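queue> pop job 88
queue> type: inverse folding (structure -> sequence)
queue> payload:
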């Protein structure tokens, strides 16, 4: 049985991240990359689960869309991990207000920020923290990101220390109690955005549906759609993906409102999750190295159950 993603220890060294951030701050991106290469090579060689998970994803993406000129091998895997490592730096730059706004492009989605609250379904792709940059340039926009951070609290404290006044707040959630739902409903009613990951199964007690992703059934959580149905607000898919020398914010509406009919809730959940899976595929076709689930993604079921 494969381990649940949350039970895989967080191996990101906060001290190492701070050192590399200092290298970038004082010397620039090229010296940062020179320091980064041996670190990534060591990590790649010492983490067989990371190698296997990256290889599985890259192979399935290639079979589905032929995004590479040749079959992906070890060099593609190293590039994948280097992409992830550089994204960690961009997370820090975004959080500390050092990321250049002119390196971030986005679709013209003014309606999304017109003062009405919404649920934003995200994935572990690209650099979601760049939403902080966008939020700082949208007066009155506030975003709450629901996260499971039990295995990465030190890293999140580092992010908070870099920018304690950010318009984006992290909220640690392992399950949804009525109190949590009421709190989020108040925030959405006040025009706030609530972001929740749609690509990882619940830590405990949640349910999933299996939908095709890169040609193979994958378990996706029903939580985002259940939450959105309770809040009765519009739902968008959103990600910040690499684009040229910077990033682009991709925003697409999933539904004006999530409807879960009695007697066919399973079909409804599968329909919404399936549309989200197809949306993820569209983003990854354009930016194939932006997938950051380094665990057995298609087999992550120990702490979740298939919905009835």
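queue> result:
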């Amino acid at each position: 049985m494969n381990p649940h993603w949350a039970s895989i220890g967080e191996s990101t060294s906060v001290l190492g991240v701070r050192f590399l951030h200092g290298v970038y701050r004082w010397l620039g991106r090229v010296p940062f990359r020179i320091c980064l290469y041996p670190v990534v090579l060591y990590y790649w060689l010492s983490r067989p689960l990371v190698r296997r998970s990256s290889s599985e994803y890259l192979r399935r993406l290639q079979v589905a869309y032929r995004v590479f000129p040749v079959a992906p091998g070890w060099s593609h895997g190293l590039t994948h991990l280097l992409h992830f490592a550089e994204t960690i730096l961009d997370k820090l730059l975004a959080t500390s207000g050092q990321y250049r706004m002119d390196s971030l492009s986005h679709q013209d989605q003014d309606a999304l920020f017109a003062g009405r609250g919404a649920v934003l379904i995200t994935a572990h792709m690209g650099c979601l923290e760049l939403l902080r940059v966008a939020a700082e340039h949208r007066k009155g926009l506030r975003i709450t990101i629901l996260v499971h951070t039990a295995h990465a609290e030190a890293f999140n404290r580092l992010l908070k220390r870099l920018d304690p006044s950010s318009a984006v707040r992290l909220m640690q959630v392992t399950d949804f109690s009525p109190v949590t739902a009421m709190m989020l409903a108040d925030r959405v009613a006040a025009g706030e955005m609530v972001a929740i990951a749609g690509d990882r199964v619940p830590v405990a007690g949640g349910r999933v549906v299996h939908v095709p992703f890169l040609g193979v059934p994958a378990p996706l959580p029903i939580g985002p759609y259940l939450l959105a149905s309770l809040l009765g607000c519009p739902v968008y898919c959103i990600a910040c993906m690499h684009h040229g020398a910077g990033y682009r914010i991709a925003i697409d509406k999933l539904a004006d409102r999530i409807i879960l009919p009695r007697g066919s809730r399973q079909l409804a959940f599968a329909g919404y999750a399936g549309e989200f899976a197809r949306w993820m595929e569209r983003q990854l076709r354009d930016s194939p190295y932006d997938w950051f689930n380094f665990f057995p993604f298609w087999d992550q079921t120990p702490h979740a159950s298939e919905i009835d």
